[in-house]
Amino acid sequence: MLLHTAHLAGLQLFVSCCRAFACHSMESSPDFSLPGDYLLGGLFPLHSGFLQVRHRPEVTLCDRPGTFNDHGYHLFQAMRLGVEEINNSTALLPNVTLGYQLYDVCSDSANVYATLRVLSLQGPHHIKLQGDLLQYSPKVLAVIGTDNTNRAATTAALLSPFLVPLLLEQIQKVNFLLHGDTVMFNDNGNPLSSYNIIAWDWNGPKWTFTVVGSSTWSPVQLDINETKIQWHGKDNQVPKSVCSSDCLEGHQRVVMGFHHCCFECVPCEAGTFLNTSDLYRCQPCGKEEWAPDGSQTCFPRTVVFLGWHEHTSWVLLAANTVLLLLLLGTAGLFAWHLDTPVVRSAGGRLCFLMLGSLAAGSSSLYGFFGEPTWPACLLRQALFALGFTIFLSCLTVRSFQLVIIFKFSTKVPTFYHAWVQNHGAGLFVMISSAAQLLICLTWLVVWTPLPTREYQRFPQLVVLECTEANSLGFILAFLYNGLLSISAFACNYLGKDLPENYNEAKCVTFSLLFNFVSWIAFFTTASVYDGKYLPAVNMLAVLSSLSSGFGGYFLPKCYVILCRPDLNSTEHFQASIQDYTRRRSST
């Protein structure tokens, strides 16, 4: 009901507009008519439209000089012939005479007027608006036309509420003989007829037409006699009729407009290729494949990791092996001279814990070589972080203990005695190492480092790596060691004026600064480079930290033990302490 109301409102608007713009002044009768039992309406453009610019809607008079339309006239005559053939046949519609009313629809306004005319009643020639359109009987039974899409849409919108058809449902049932040919229509209303294919032959003084083929619909067949076709090229050569030339290899066809033969050639992007089965779309390569720009095929990605056989690995392995040998040799040297003043002043048995922690950190470097595995990813960073924490804790507490002995034992004897009686040095190392162990365990559980295959950074490579570098646990462990390094630096700075035999401020400060620089260099490199050799850069930072810690603390003491045994005596150490006492008392 709402749909009918909308259609009626639209029709009233058309009628109002028609009256407002002088539709009433037009001729009230159709251009051509034929009486009959049933009337058909025909809408054909017998004249061309009005092409000038208009500033308001106006009714166009069709019968103007010089505007005759040949195409519309042919359609007009075709309908007249069709109606006459049906009326003259005794088999098609016996005892029934068809009539027609044909209108010239040269413009939109004429089209609306003609449509309203065919909807008018038979007697009073006006349209009666009523609620039940099923009871409405216009004077025409059906309408044929128009040939213009826009005007056809307007006509259909006006006719559909009154249930007037373009004969499409019934035309599919038509099947009759006309001059020996069968006339019938397909589901779309198009005629199924036989055609001759005619070529225009301009050879000789006169132009002629030659039948070069034919098309039939039952059976569906197309026959062309190519020998009868005369081409205008040299030696009757068939001209090449293409909109676009074939694309180069690896270039897809991007259709321009509506026709597939008109296209632009665009190279396939990297990571895609052009399959010859579909020339209009580049297809993506597989996850393990890659392709350059403009490729017709994909190539296997190269799997890369820091292997054992590479020259860079050999250099790092050699340096790490040398460091391990030095640590082992130093441990043996200190064990041999355990009761000497140099070893006792360095921390005594605490030195073995420091050397062992550096060796554990050094052993973690072997997890960076070869294809990443789950155990290697799990231990290589965490083992270094924990080992270096133990070393820094021992270094910090040893420096702090010397400062307490020489500077605060007499000023705050209560704190000094409590520190000694409660084994403050061992307690600090245990608590500090336990805190880092807790961080590492949390890291391994929550942000578990796992071997992964990285596909995004390099289109032609698959980088095998561990996932620890981007995790929060790695950052926390590194920051904790950074805090311990600052603590060790502060304690050594406080002891910069201690007796010469107990003063390692310069060497330890240098080693800690070198540690900071190495890690700053690593993070800077990691921010701009993320390739195959990033693990090697990481190893270099780790190796630098371990070597600087060993070199800054243990190498000076090894030099004294091996090259200056005269300085490794109780008398020399007592003389150094007495000299320090005199200097402090004098100040």
Automatic annotation (TrEMBL):
Gene3D superfamilies: 3.40.50.2300, GPCR, family 3, nine cysteines domain. Pfam families: 7tm_3, ANF_receptor, NCD3G. One of its GO terms (biological process) is sensory perception of umami taste. Residues 1-20 form the signal peptide. Keywords: Cell membrane, G-protein coupled receptor, Glycoprotein, Membrane, Receptor, Signal, Transducer, Transmembrane, Transmembrane helix. It comes from Callithrix jacchus (White-tufted-ear marmoset). GO terms for molecular function: G protein-coupled receptor activity. It is found in: Cell membrane. It is a multi-pass membrane protein. This is Taste 1 receptor member 1. InterPro entries: ANF_lig-bd_rcpt, GPCR_3, GPCR_3_9-Cys_dom, GPCR_3_9-Cys_sf, GPCR_3_C, GPCR_3_Ca_sens_rcpt-rel, GPCR_3_CS, Peripla_BP_I. The gene is TAS1R1. The chain crosses the membrane at residues 314-338, 350-369, 381-406, 427-450, 470-495, 507-529, 535-555. Residues 312-577 form the G-protein coupled receptors family 3 profile domain. GO terms for cellular component: plasma membrane.
